[in-house]
Each structure stands twice: as C-alpha cells, then as structure tokens.
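Practice problem 4.
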C-alpha cells in the first residue's frame, strides 16, 4: 500500500482492523494468520521435496480458511482503492 500513498495505506489499515475484529468475534480465527498460513503452505508445496511435504502440509480445512481469508483481504483492498 505504500506505493499508493499514506491515504490508501491508512484507509486499508483501518478497514482491515475492523474486518479482523469482526471476523475474530464471529468465527474465532484471525484472517491475517489464516492467510499467512496459506502462503506458507503454498511455499512449502512449491519448494519442499515430496517426503518432507507430506509431514508438513496443511489440512484441507486450513487451506480453505486461508483462501476465504484471502478473499476478504482482496475485497478490503479493492474497496479502499475505489474511494
């Protein structure tokens, strides 16, 4: 967000904090942490040898949570850039 200026960075941070707090209250897991886990799992899948991959791979529900969290983050970013 820094590339677009302080105005958009502040707007994104404020909206994301609201989304994060609401999501934690309703679903009891963090959007930020869940999306971060998805990125780590994707990196492991792409980089680790198969024998290591099977010991460290995230479960399907974790991947699905990460995907849904990513959609929330992208929606937040999109709305911040529109106005």
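Answer key:
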């Amino acid at each position: 967000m820094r590339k677009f200026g302080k105005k958009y960075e502040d707007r994104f941070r404020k909206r994301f904090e609201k989304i994060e707090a609401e999501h934690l209250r309703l679903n009891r897991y963090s959007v930020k942490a869940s999306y971060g886990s998805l990125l780590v799992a994707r990196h492991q899948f792409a980089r680790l040898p198969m024998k290591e991959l099977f010991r460290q791979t995230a479960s399907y529900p974790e991947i699905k949570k990460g995907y849904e969290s990513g959609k929330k983050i992208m929606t937040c970013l999109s709305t911040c850039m529109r106005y």
